[in-house]
Amino acid sequence: MPLFIVGTPIGNLKDISQRALETLRESDIVLCESEERLRRLTGNLAITIKRFMTFREENRKRVTPEIIRYLKENQSISLVSDAGMPSVSDPGSFLINEVFENNLPVFLVPGPTAFASALSACGFTAKESLFAGFLPRKRKEIDELFGFCRQRDTLLVFYESPERILNTLQILEQSDPLCTVFIAREMTKQHEELLRGSPQELTGHLSGRTIKGEITVVVRFSPKKNETGYDPELLKILLEQRLGTKTIARILADYYQLSAGSIYNEIIRNKD
Hints:
Methyltransferase, Cobalt-precorrin-4 Transmethylase, Domain 2; 3 domains; 5-stranded parallel sheet; 43% helix; elongated
């Protein structure tokens, strides 16, 4: 029997598909990160699971041979994560790779994914996007990642904890104060919050609050410095922020070490 990769809701229970419900109900075994969370989910969905089995980072190497054996014995097994699609930020990919290596079939039952949902809602455009999971812990590695995305005009998508989000905004402010940040907190849940602005603006909005819940961040970096003058895409971004012409000219002049007066006159000419 195949291994079914089953997507579950990232928040709103109504987002689960009919096919996912049927697959979970009919599976001989459902692999989960947390049996408690899955029991709560299936209880709310009013479905009965035949057998639960935990599969997480700590036990993946130990239980994977047993799971492979069950599959070879023609048992139907489904893999779920705590929320969203399995193997995005959990050890599911380890098992899936072993299933392929044993020439066993894998079936996909897709569902919501936090990073794809955030990309859909942020309103940013770019030639490409990069999902980084959680940011590295070392500042040097974070700076390298930000620099790579900025150089390539790549949207960066990552997950962040409530405890670290203000620190991350501070790093973004230091690295690229003109970037635009989209924060999706508790997507599809009762207290869903979608915020967009500069690192400084979002820091002001979140400071002094008790921040809770799951957070997905999308960053649109400002254009890389152009030695021949300012980048017109950066001007477009600043105009979208409804800033005054003098303020925009001053920002561009400071950023590119150019004449504020010349930039101001050029903006006026283009407006006319």
